[in-house]
Amino acid sequence: AAHAFAIAAETGATIERVAHHHAHFAACLGENGVPLGAPAMFGLVLDGTGVGLDDTSSWGAELLVGGYAEVRRVATLKPIALLGGDRAAREPWRCLYAHLRAEMAWGELLANFGDVDVIARLRAKPVELLDQMLAGGVGAPRASSGGRLFDAVAAALDLCFEAQDHEAQAATMLESLVTDAALAQALQEREADEVYPLSVPTLAGGLPYIEPLGLWRALLGDLATGVAPSLVAARFHVALGLGLAKLCARQAEVLGDAAPRQVALSGGCFQNAVLHTRTTAELERCGFEVLSHAEVPTHDGGLAFGQALVALARIARSPCGGGEPPRGGEDI
Q: Is the overall model pTM greater than 0.70, yes or no?
């Protein structure tokens, strides 16, 4: 960013700041040939983290509505603390602890799930220090991260519990754990409406969010009763795909006749074939048309394409053709 501003100062070039998740959304629209000026669409973006439209908060699982030139966030995933900052992305147990403590008091976890192996392993961590970080927010920035949710579930299943050697290793191993037989059983349960529950309350500011409390209680209950890890992993993927679709459907009801009927899927989490397939199926079941990536990468490799499309759209709609004032986000 500093380099771009320096070049702009030297050359007089216009700077357009494009939020990370807006760029993901625009890249998917562009790949699917959505024309400039098309009606607003939903953008469902799941990844690790990226600076949000307000230029301060970290996003990573967002429902957007809009198009190339501008978007607004209409729903999210419940934010959790990234204990240790960037270390949370490298050490999945930190994500697991943060997720569980965002849902339940430590005493409740011990009382209800103290016999679960992963809870015993967490007890060996510096719990008092971690709780101080959670209470004070020091070294624990908050993020609504889809990637960190996958890391937490992977850690619960003893996948890369202590550390992962490369980006998305834990999430990839969690996806690989899903067998055909386990997925078939989870889908039968879904048809019987027996799914890990994900509710959609609202944050203090009125923003709807996916609340995973029920999911965590059910998942830990499965671990306590010895359910096969492959089935736990399958149930998680099925539940998340259904939860994301229900989130879109709920927001469509809120928007009424003006609600989009198309949803663009983007972000690194949608490299997960099981999640992508389940989310697409559930969205189509709700009556949405789904747009996905095929050639442009759904991960950060597609950001530059999305950034260029956003900048072009803003220039095209500006009366003088000179773009708009900078907008929030870290991507330039």
A: yes
